[in-house]
Amino acid sequence: MDTLFAICATYAVEDGQAAGFMLMRKQLDGGAKPWPILIARKGNNFFGFENACPHQSLRLDTVPGEFMDEEGNFITCGNHDARFDLDTGHCFIGPCQGQALTPIKLIIDDGDVCLTGVDLAEEDGLDIPEPDEMPEVQITSD
């Protein structure tokens, strides 16, 4: 079974909306590269795509976090007003008509939206070695 990476809680993405996330994807050379994605929701269904318009590979959200049309039916590109089908990512209006967003495999697990099938770079905040010993704590009276 593939490793699951929890991205957010299901309640973090409202019905008819989408949320963007910046992850770090492992590269073949062992390094990591920023990887913007979006997770959209329609009812109880969640859809994941790379946050890149197939027209010019620009981010879809020219205003951070604004991915959907006003009715919450389609993903839109803020650069060229292209429209994408929510469940397939297929572009049906705009300069990339006939192309599609790159899908991301999502799994809902215990109330979390999880990503699978992708190698993400380990992220523990900073690349600082863990201390071998616990710091000494000393309690004194005033």
Describe the structure.
Helices cover about 0% and strands about 35% of the residues. A hairpin with a 2-residue loop joins strand 9 and strand 10. Strands 2-3-4-8 form a 4-stranded antiparallel β-sheet, with no helix packed on it. Strands 1-10-9 form a 3-stranded antiparallel β-sheet, with no helix packed on it. The chain has a 3-stranded antiparallel β-sheet with strand order 5-6-7, with no helix packed on it. It is mostly beta strands and about 140 residues long. It has strands at about 5-10, 20-25, 30-40, 45-50, 75, 85, 90-95, 105, 105-110, 110-115. It is globular, with a radius of gyration of 19 Å. It is built from no helices and 10 strands.
